Amino acid sequence: SDQYSLYFAGSTTLFNALLMKCLEREVMALCRYTACRNTPPRFVALVPQEEEVDEQKVQIAPPGFHIIFLPYADDKRNVDFTEKVPASREQVDKMKEIIQKLRFKYRTDSFENPVLQQHFRNLEALALAMMEPEQAEDLTSENYWWV
Length: 147
Known about the structure:
By secondary structure, the protein is an alpha+beta fold. The chain is built from four helices and five strands. It has helices spanning 11-25, 89-102, 114-127, 142-145, and strands at 29-33, 42-49, 52-53, 59-61, 64-69. The longest helix is centred in the first third of the chain and has 15 residues, at 11-25. The protein starts with 10 loop residues before the first helix and ends with a helix. The strands form two sheets. The protein has a three-stranded antiparallel β-sheet with strand order 1-2-5. Strands 3-4 form a two-stranded antiparallel sheet.
C-alpha cells in the first residue's frame, strides 16, 4: 500500500519552498493537473496564499495554494450585445421580492446529512431483515427545492 501513499520524502519542504518563493516574487505557478488516472490533464494556476493570523496569533487562513482551473480556448466565446435593455422599476422590485424569499437563517442542524441518513436506513433494513431499505429524502438536493 506504500505505492498509493501521497507522502514523498521532502515533499513538505518542496511545497513550503515553492509557496515562499511564489509569495516573495508575487507570482503564481502554471501547472498541468491530473486528478486521477485515466482522466485528461487540465491546466491550472496555483495562486499562493499567505497565512493570516489575528491579534491573538490565531490562524484565520492557512498558508497554501488555490487551484484555479484555466479554460480551454473553446470554453471562451465572445457575445455581442446589441443593445442594453434596462429593467423597469416593477421588474427590479419583483426580483428584490424573490431574492428576499430565498434568504433564510442557515442552521446546520436544520438539514440532515442525506448520506448518513441513507446509511442509517440501510442498517435498519439489515437489522429488521427488510428486503429493501427506505430511501432517505435529500432536503439539500436542488430537485427538492424546485418541487
